[in-house]
Amino acid sequence: MKKKISVGLFFLCSACSNAESAKEVQATYVPSGTYNGYSCKELALEADRIILSTPQLSAAVDEKYRKDKGAELVTWILFWPAAFAMEGNADEVRQLANAKGRLEAIEVKMKLKKC
């Protein structure tokens, strides 16, 4: 019985935070037309710049995710009503999703230009 209650509490706690890990983040749509004036070389440079920044963005998302999940557990144990006000990692997720979307748009534009 205690095991069932513990498992139930675990799933209840894990379901309340809106924080996402980096691997769960989906790319936002960025139109490839954003890069209409770019040459193949400029597209490649922009893609490289985004690729180089993505690991830091992913690390920031995951770090905030871990902190949020830890704080959520403590909040549930000590003061459960506050668990519903957890802020999550929406800013970091938005930045990573935008970077992924821009990279996809650049890849589409490079294919269209046959770079």
Strand content: under 5%
Helicity range: 55-70%
Succession of helices and strands: HHH
Termini gap: 62 Å
Q: Helical element count?
A: 3
- Which regions have little confidence, pLDDT < 50, spanning 5+ residues? 11-15
Largest sheet, in brief, is: none
Q: What is the CA-atom radius of gyration, in angstroms?
A: 19 Å
Mean pLDDT: 79
Rough shape? elongated
Structural class: mainly alpha
Number of strands: 0
Features:
115 residues; mainly alpha
Short account of what is shown:
The protein has 3 helices and no strands. The protein has 115 residues and is mostly helical.
Give an overview in words:
This protein is mainly α and 115 residues long. 65% of the residues lie in helices and 0% in strands. α2 (40-78) packs antiparallel against α3. The chain is elongated.
Explain the layout of strands and helices.
Layout: H1 2-14, H2 40-78, H3 90-112
Helix pairs in contact: 2-3
